[in-house]
Amino acid sequence: WLQQTLQDYVTSLQPITWRGKIVQLTPKQYGAALLQGYLGGMSLDRLGGVINISLETLRHWRQEPGFLWVMDWSKSIFVEFFCDSLIRNDYSLSQYYDIAGEFSLLEDSLKIRVRARLYRDLRALAEKIHNLHRFFMRMDDYDLRLFRRLLLFFLVLEDFWPSPAGRRLRRNFLPLAQQVVWPLLGSEEFLEIEVAKTRGKYRRAGSPVTKLVPRLKEIFAALRSSHQF
């Protein structure tokens, strides 16, 4: 999302607007605003290092209206992108750890909006699957796969951002997965064992920040080499 949004900005032939106002930021300022709106769980000093600017410069930019507009606008766009990506795509358990680890670094309002929306979807889906199973009715394969995607994301997310919903996940949704969804998908996932094994591998590979920062630096370095950035 970040890479594509930045690429669109620096290559666009038309001015980028927000609520009818033209965004007049340099590509570097625009990238900094996106990061600020996105990674609220990362320090300003570390973000400045990613973009290759000083902490004082970043603090100065944060006072400019255009910078704040982009921070605000980008949050809504990102929420849509994240939810759609998670709903549409299958990931391995290791990939869910990467996603959840990065998710834990997001700005708090973003995390709350995404989790509330996806949890609402998971709860409605679980109720639908439960009722269909109860009355021996056919279930759509798409619903089963979507339930798997959402449940795996939330179970892994508890390792990074625990919540009271964690107990409800295991009490209300995990039995449904093990008794109904996994068998119908032809899967023999043993979540408790697999999550524990993947958790150990992920933690040995480093923290979410340690894993994310080099990738972010690559994105900005690539833009600097191909555009005036």
Notes on the protein architecture:
This protein is mainly alpha-helical and 229 residues long. It has eleven helices and two strands. Helix 1 (2-11) packs antiparallel against helix 2 (27-38), helix 5 runs parallel beside helix 7 (108-134) and helix 6 crosses helix 8 (141-160). The model has no long low-confidence stretch (mean pLDDT 87).
Q: Which structural class fits the helix and strand makeup?
A: mainly alpha
**Largest sheet, strands/sense/barrel:** 2 strands, antiparallel
Number of strands: 2
The order of strands across the largest sheet is: 1-2
Tally of contiguous helical segments: 11
Rounded to the nearest angstrom, the distance between the terminal CA atoms is 18 Å
Assess the beta-strand content as a share of residues.
under 5%
Radius of gyration: 20 Å
Oligomeric state: single chain
Query: Portion of residues in helices?
Result: over 70%
Task: State the low-pLDDT regions, or none.
Answer: none
What value does the average pLDDT take?
Answer: 87
- Give the H and E element order: HEEHHHHHHHHHH
Shape: elongated
Present the secondary structure layout.
Layout: H1 2-11, E1 17-18, E2 21-22, H2 27-38, H3 44-51, H4 55-61, H5 65-88, H6 93-103, H7 108-134, H8 141-160, H9 165-184, H10 191-204, H11 208-226
Antiparallel strand pairs: 1-2
Short characterization:
This protein is mostly helical and 229 residues long.
